[in-house]
Amino acid sequence: MAHNLAQCQLLAQKAVAAGAKALFLPEASDYIASTASETVSLVQSTTTSPFVLGLQSSARKHRLPINVGIHEPTQDGKKVKNTLVWIDEDGAIRHQYQKLHLFDVDIPGGSVLKESNSVEKGTEIVPPFSTGLGNVGMLICFDVRAFLPLCPKHSLSLRRQGAQIITYPSAFTVPTGLAHWSTLLRARAIETQSYVIAAAQVGSHNEKRSSYGHSMIVSPWGDILAELGGEKEEPEIAVANVDLSQLEKIRKEMPLRRRTDVYPEI
């Protein structure tokens, strides 16, 4: 975790140098373990975690809000929470979201990844909140897929509640990233007419796990405004302008009219 903290603090310095108004970091930025038991054994609360405390210090030092994915202990201590926290420029944790949809895959003769072995699923969509960039709605990684009939209801719910920016910090696998990453992010941006910010883990974590990378910022029109690569080198940032006037123009000229007389409001 000390190494990951150092990497994230370097990214904070780069963000400040680039003139960014906030830093968005990936899912599970504190650590990715090789086993379920290791995942649980490493977890610490936000009040004692050196990783979280270090980022709070960086946020205060640079006057830079930081959105970061971490692990938190559950009440019974048997699993962890996969959470996303918003640390404001004063270093305080103001908002937290617990991942709703867990990644459970068991392919006969192939990959077995069961997040639910060590992670407790979340139970609610957290309302968007105001920031210097706009209203931010938080989702994580596998939440990006449309699980429910007709639409990805969680992202549209955030849009209905006023979100202008939706986050998907991730640790996508390489096969699914190659096939679906860009398509899914652009689809979520287009259908919600929101900016999508998806900070992504990249490269090998251990002998069992590698992540696709390709952190991305997508406009409400579905344009890819910035994208990083898929190779693990020195930590880097992608920067793009969030233009809320352009967002409102898109929403005005291409209004979303839901047939709530046919299917329920989200």
Structural category: alpha/beta
User: What is the CA–CA distance across the termini?
Assistant: 39 Å
Read across the widest sheet, the strand sequence of neighbours is 8-9-10-11-14-15
Order of helices and strands: HEHHEEEEEEEEHEHEEEEEH
The average pLDDT score comes to: 92
Strand composition percent? 15-25%
**Silhouette:** globular
Q: Main β-sheet, in a few words?
A: 6 strands, mixed
Number of helices: 6
Task: Compute the CA-based radius of gyration.
Answer: 18 Å
Number of strands: 15
Query: Residue share in helices?
Result: 25-40%
What is the fold's blueprint, element by element?
Elements (H helix, E strand, L loop, with lengths): L1 H16 L5 E2 L11 H7 L7 H13 L3 E8 L6 E8 L5 E6 L5 E3 L5 E3 L4 E2 L8 E2 L4 E4 L14 H8 L4 E3 L6 H19 L2 E4 L3 E5 L2 E4 L3 E3 L5 E4 L16 H10 L13
Parallel strand pairs: 1-2, 3-7, 9-10, 10-11
Antiparallel strand pairs: 2-3, 3-4, 5-6, 8-9, 11-14, 12-13, 14-15
Helix pairs in contact: 1-3
